[in-house]
Amino acid sequence: MGKRVALVLAGCGVFDGSEIHEASAALVHLSRGGAEVKIFAPNIEQRDVVDHLKGSPAEEKRNVLVESARLARGNIQDLAELKASEFDAVVFPGGFGVAKNLCSWAVDGKDCTVNEHVKSTLQAFHSAKKPIGLCCISPVLAAKVFPGCEVTVGQDKNVDGRFPDAETASAIAELGCKHVCKNVNESHVDKANKIVTTCAFMCKAPLHEIFDGIGTMVQEVLKLA
């Protein structure tokens, strides 16, 4: 039997939802690993909507669950319906939607609040000692919910201009968590908490390297499941 994995989305599109390449990479690697995947998203309004062609705010409202359904090909459920007892692991792709819709990191940084269903989902998997996979900006969810955990968002310095959001590592440390520096094609495993993280698009890297890094994260999650 393949592992049962829940994938949690935050909308559709890097600037206001889930990063599409990261979500796709996670789904491909999960499929290759023989996992049975079900997709979820919170049924809430997006914090904002961004015109991805212009890179500027759009004067409209969108729903996170409805937008996430685009990525899920319509096969998606409200995050409120997710039961950790029915799954072996949970995975969160990144994208600004994580920092805007799943929590308020984009506005409040380390002082952010986490959506109640996202928080209860993370806590349920953690309490059941089931692995949690996070990539790109989504490791901040673990840093906020599980003080003392270990995560990576890549490097803590902007090495060669490839890590423009390196200050995120400092904010994670301020939350009492350990940031572990890793390359884009690597992941970090916090064995004590069963949290697996990789930096993905937090690094300016070729798409195949980001894809490979997400692959290592998925492989480690499935090993722990």
TrEMBL record:
<protein>
    <submittedName>
        <fullName>GAL3A protein</fullName>
    </submittedName>
</protein>
<dbReference type="InterPro" id="IPR029062">
    <property type="entry name" value="Class_I_gatase-like"/>
</dbReference>
